[in-house]
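tool_call predict_complex ligand=adenosine-5'-triphosphate
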Amino acid sequence: ASINLPQFVDQIMERFEMSTKNESITFKHKIPDRDMFVYGDRDKLTQLMDNILSNAVKYSPEGGTITCALKAEKDRVLVSIKDEGVGIPKENIPFVFDRFYRVDKARTRNLGGTGLGLAIAKEIVTAHGGSIWVSSDWGKGTTISFALPLDEEAEQL
Ligand code: ATP
Ligand code: MG
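tool_result ok
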């Protein structure tokens, strides 16, 4: 189906805001007030956002800010989710999309997880003809970004 991504992402962000009310995390939206359609599977794209946002929440400190930005660029739309959490050491970055990979088991032991979230996220983005990447500063935070092709036909409706 054709999905209006700004509206779709806003709704998911709102759900996360509600569900983390007790964790003093601030959510910022940098989402343009216009339509940007992508063609995709609504459930899969929900899971994509959930996997990325649940990491951002899990690895954020008390009082951290999570910023979600979205913009159209040529024939694609870029989405980035930035947190102020523990970050990922440079040498671990190439592996975070591998199945069952978790950075520093000791560090994340208490946080739980199987190391599948980002592997699944990558599968979903790839199946939609897009790409996903990470940039992170150890100790400063992490940004996960993905790009999906714009649905040019829907934009003309
Ligand atoms: P699961 O998602 O299966 O519950 P997980 O969160 O450990 O487990 P992934 O979501 O695949 O697994 O992430 C892989 C690893 O990358 C994590 O274990 C963590 O070390 C690191 N990571 C992912 N996102 C972040 C983030 N926002 N900040 C810091 N580290 C992160
Ligand atoms: Mg995860």
